[in-house]
């Protein structure tokens, strides 16, 4: 579809240090992204600027330097650690004479490699098509004319218009399919809400250790690796917690600085698991020197997707890489857990994490002492089935005296099934 240079495996990286905080990026993170994409780093060019230049994003002198470096290193692609406009990409490619990619294109490429499920592939394709649609004009400038000559006259539509129409059609088809997926997810969420099964969603900066922690807690065996965006497709697993019962744990895609808006929009169905969770486990790589900035970036994305007000429990991960740090639970002034220090890799502190999870979720529990007459055998059977009995004895009149602790959802469900209100059996 495009009249562009081929992309190879050897890349020259370009990182500009801006004085403006909004445009700042991390060179080390770019190198990790490039490594995750399976590209070899042939060289790095850095520069400092106050603001981007309109034509080349960088100064013309620096652009010439990049062209010379590409030629001497025989590189196949230049990757910028910033977002470029379509015209800047076009101008740079014309000058450097090789393919130019920006940070957004690189992230989209990694996502395309990682997608495993049908839904994940659709979401990535949608984000790629939206990104490509803004760059179509460059691919077809040489064809932006109507066909002429005998037997070649078309319906009056230029090649560019044809491709834009095809892209729009494909985007609409993907959106229809994703709408079906979203409905299925909503049905699952509604049924969990009816049963009042709490949902816990893992969030955090990419490569913070979310999937490793998820595997340690659930034995799920999902793919985990020391690379950016190892997890793309969401995974849900049921976990059993003392005093809470069943809970759903969701592993989600990692966040990153300036996550492309097209990706946020494309992954709306996936990120809804985060929006509608009862609790967010914010996993932080505490061994990373930039952990504070990474936490801020995650909170920015959470705000963007409407999950800012969901309660958070911070998981300080990778303590095995720190000196003199032991597993522990940090609490606020009211005694509620706010941070848990763990190592998902070694399993240190996982027992404390489960204790903290129980404390955060058990607000949905009810505890009562019941006096149940002998003729209420059905109610006794239901209580035994739920395994919610903590203590039991018999009164002189033959009534069954029982202490129970159960989910409020189970309490309300039984209340609807029995002939009398459960509150009539409660001993105050």
From TrEMBL:
<dbReference type="InterPro" id="IPR027417">
    <property type="entry name" value="P-loop_NTPase"/>
</dbReference>
<dbReference type="InterPro" id="IPR030394">
    <property type="entry name" value="G_HFLX_dom"/>
</dbReference>
<keyword id="KW-0547">Nucleotide-binding</keyword>
<dbReference type="InterPro" id="IPR006073">
    <property type="entry name" value="GTP-bd"/>
</dbReference>
<keyword id="KW-0479">Metal-binding</keyword>
<feature type="domain" description="Hflx-type G">
    <location>
        <begin position="198"/>
        <end position="365"/>
    </location>
</feature>
<dbReference type="GO" id="GO:0016787">
    <property type="term" value="F:hydrolase activity"/>
</dbReference>
<comment type="similarity">
    <text>Belongs to the TRAFAC class OBG-HflX-like GTPase superfamily. HflX GTPase family.</text>
</comment>
<dbReference type="InterPro" id="IPR042108">
    <property type="entry name" value="GTPase_HflX_N_sf"/>
</dbReference>
<protein>
    <recommendedName>
        <fullName>GTPase HflX</fullName>
    </recommendedName>
</protein>
<comment type="function">
    <text>GTPase that associates with the 50S ribosomal subunit and may have a role during protein synthesis or ribosome biogenesis.</text>
</comment>
<dbReference type="InterPro" id="IPR035647">
    <property type="entry name" value="EFG_III/V"/>
</dbReference>
<dbReference type="InterPro" id="IPR016496">
    <property type="entry name" value="GTPase_HflX"/>
</dbReference>
<dbReference type="Pfam" id="PF16360">
    <property type="entry name" value="GTP-bdg_M"/>
</dbReference>
<dbReference type="Pfam" id="PF13167">
    <property type="entry name" value="GTP-bdg_N"/>
</dbReference>
<dbReference type="InterPro" id="IPR032305">
    <property type="entry name" value="GTP-bd_M"/>
</dbReference>
<dbReference type="Pfam" id="PF01926">
    <property type="entry name" value="MMR_HSR1"/>
</dbReference>
<keyword id="KW-0460">Magnesium</keyword>
<keyword id="KW-0378">Hydrolase</keyword>
<dbReference type="InterPro" id="IPR025121">
    <property type="entry name" value="GTPase_HflX_N"/>
</dbReference>
<keyword id="KW-0342">GTP-binding</keyword>
<comment type="subunit">
    <text>Monomer. Associates with the 50S ribosomal subunit.</text>
</comment>
<keyword id="KW-0963">Cytoplasm</keyword>
């Amino acid at each position: 579809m495009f009249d562009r240079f081929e992309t190879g495996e050897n890349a020259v990286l370009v990182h500009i240090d801006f004085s403006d905080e909004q445009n700042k990026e991390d060179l080390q993170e770019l190198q990790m992204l490039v490594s995750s994409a399976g590209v070899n780093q042939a060289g790095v060019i850095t520069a400092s600027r106050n603001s981007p230049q309109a034509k080349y994003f960088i100064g013309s002198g620096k652009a010439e330097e990049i062209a010379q470096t590409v030629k001497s290193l025989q590189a196949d692609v230049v990757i910028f650690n910033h977002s470029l406009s379509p015209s800047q990409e076009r101008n740079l490619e014309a000058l450097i004479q090789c393919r130019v990619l920006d940070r957004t294109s690189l992230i989209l490429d990694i996502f395309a490699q990682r997608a495993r499920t049908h839904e994940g592939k659709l979401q990535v394709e949608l984000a790629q098509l939206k990104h490509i649609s803004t760059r179509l004009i460059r691919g077809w400038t040489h064809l932006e004319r109507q066909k002429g000559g005998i037997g070649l006259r078309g319906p009056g539509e230029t090649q560019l218009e044809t491709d834009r129409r095809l892209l729009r059609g494909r985007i609409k088809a993907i959106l229809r399919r994703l709408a079906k997926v979203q409905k299925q997810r909503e049905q699952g969420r509604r049924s969990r809400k009816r049963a009042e099964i709490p949902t816990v969603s893992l969030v955090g900066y990419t490569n913070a250790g979310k999937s490793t922690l998820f595997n340690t807690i659930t034995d799920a065996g999902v793919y985990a690796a020391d690379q950016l965006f190892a997890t793309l497709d969401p995974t849900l697993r049921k976990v059993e917690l003392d005093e809470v019962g069943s809970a759903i744990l969701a592993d989600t895609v990692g966040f990153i600085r300036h996550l492309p808006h097209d990706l946020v929009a494309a992954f709306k169905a996936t990120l809804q698991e985060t929006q509608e969770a009862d609790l967010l486990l914010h996993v932080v790589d505490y061994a990373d020197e930039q952990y504070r900035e990474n936490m801020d970036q995650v909170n920015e994305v959470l705000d963007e997707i409407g999950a800012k007000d969901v309660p958070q429990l911070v998981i300080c991960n990778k303590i095995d890489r720190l000196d003199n740090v032991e597993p522990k639970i940090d609490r606020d002034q009211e005694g509620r857990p706010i941070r848990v220090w763990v190592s998902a890799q070694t399993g240190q502190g996982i027992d404390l994490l489960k204790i903290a999870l129980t404390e955060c979720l058990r607000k949905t529990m009810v505890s009562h002492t019941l006096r149940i007459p002998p003729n209420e055998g059905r109610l006794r059977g239901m209580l035994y089935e739920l395994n919610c009995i903590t203590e039991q004895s018999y009164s002189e009149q033959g009534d069954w005296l029982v202490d129970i602790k159960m989910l409020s959802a189970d309490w309300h469900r039984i209340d609807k099934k029995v002939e009398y209100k459960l509150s009539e059996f409660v001993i105050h």
